[in-house]
Amino acid sequence: MSSAFGPATAQGNCGHPNGDHVVIEVKWEDPIGGLAVRDGPNGGANRLGIIPASGTGIGVGQCQDNGWCQVKYACVSGWSLLARFLAPRIRRLNRVTGVSPDDLEGLNVRVGPHQTYPAKVRIPYNGTDVIKHICQPSPNDRTEWCLVTYRDNSGWVAGRFLTAVATPSPVPSSGPNPGPSPPKVDPLPDPKVEPNPGPSSGPAPGPSSRACQLFPNLC
Amino acid sequence: MWTRRETVAGGALTLLLGGTPRCACAADPRAPRSFGCFLADTDFDAIYPAGTDTRAFISGDEPMIPKSGDVDFDLALAQTLAKLSDALNVLPGFAYYDDYDGLNAYATRRSRLERVDGTVLMGIKLLQRLRKGLESPEVAVAAVTAHEFGHILQFRHSLIDTVNAGQANVRKSELQADFFAGYFAGLRKRERPSFPAAVVAMTQFGFGDNNPGNRNHHGTAQERGAAVVRGFESSFRDNKNLSDAIQESTTYVLSL
User: What is the ipTM of this complex?
Assistant: First the structure.
């Protein structure tokens, strides 16, 4: 699986993720480009890794009342805010619509949310099982673009060419050890990029600092 | 003891008025002919009027940055200016100005002092904002200052017209200045492994914008952070000298 953006991932070399959840609602502009996996069920816990914004195959375990759940993504196990940034894959499936069968190229999957970004792969006009991670206005012209994953390739497609696939019934969070339902409305601050609560100056920021989250190679 | 390395110009102009924070290097209405965070000569006087108190730190007896009110910070900044001067081989003046209608910093070719390569102007409100940062705020100040020193380097080597040729905005010259800020961060990291170089990248990342149609577009957050990282790698990892780094930075931004 590839990441449309984000310098660091938690995928590692532990094989293909095989859970049934996917990352959602991580925006193109997100400073860390993905979902932080932490060593505790709160935004202040140490970050163990980042699941890309286009992450799939995430396993979900026990959840807490605050919406944080145990997650496993390839090599990394920890805690993430399921209520806000993870969803069952089956709820995010879409199919391509509005593309002519005569269009041999199909739907372009681009490296960024605008038609000026280069295409990396294409989805056939009748493509199904397209996982939609997030849709958002393009920073360029405000048209809607969606980050998707199709057959392990991820990127951005024009939102008007996607239609959600109806699911038979609402599917609850279906991790191996499902816990209490997460809150519908998340009152918590963004747990992925919390500022470093440490001293305002002094030695180099530690690996949990925001700067080091953004630019780990400089720490 | 002060050495020549520390004889970097400094001074202050502080007229604290209300204003709406914008972003570093935003276009200033008082500088209508200028784009990017450097000033045309004709605009310089508009924000840096004649008679402004500027002076070089010659003996060390002078008040270094009189208006900051923080002796420790003043000393740290003076040292940083000296290190920047050495790293980028430029000797600009440095002064504050009143960025009453936004948060800005500028570099200009105009020199108010002898022996200096233009002048770097730091908005007093921008300084205040940066110093409120939670993570190594003094390094955030250094990041913006290094970026402006990068523009001075561009002036000296006539790089701006080269990298902006045919461009509708100033993005490439701004990203090259970010590269130089990263180059400085890499040198500091080599010198002091605990130097929080990531804060330099994060600071410039934070000033990214998504307005490519604007002539004053400086690059997106991702582009700005990436430019700092490239500059950092040039010095820290590849140990390139300044001449080679200048060439690399030009090739880099032209490839974008």
Answer: 0.74
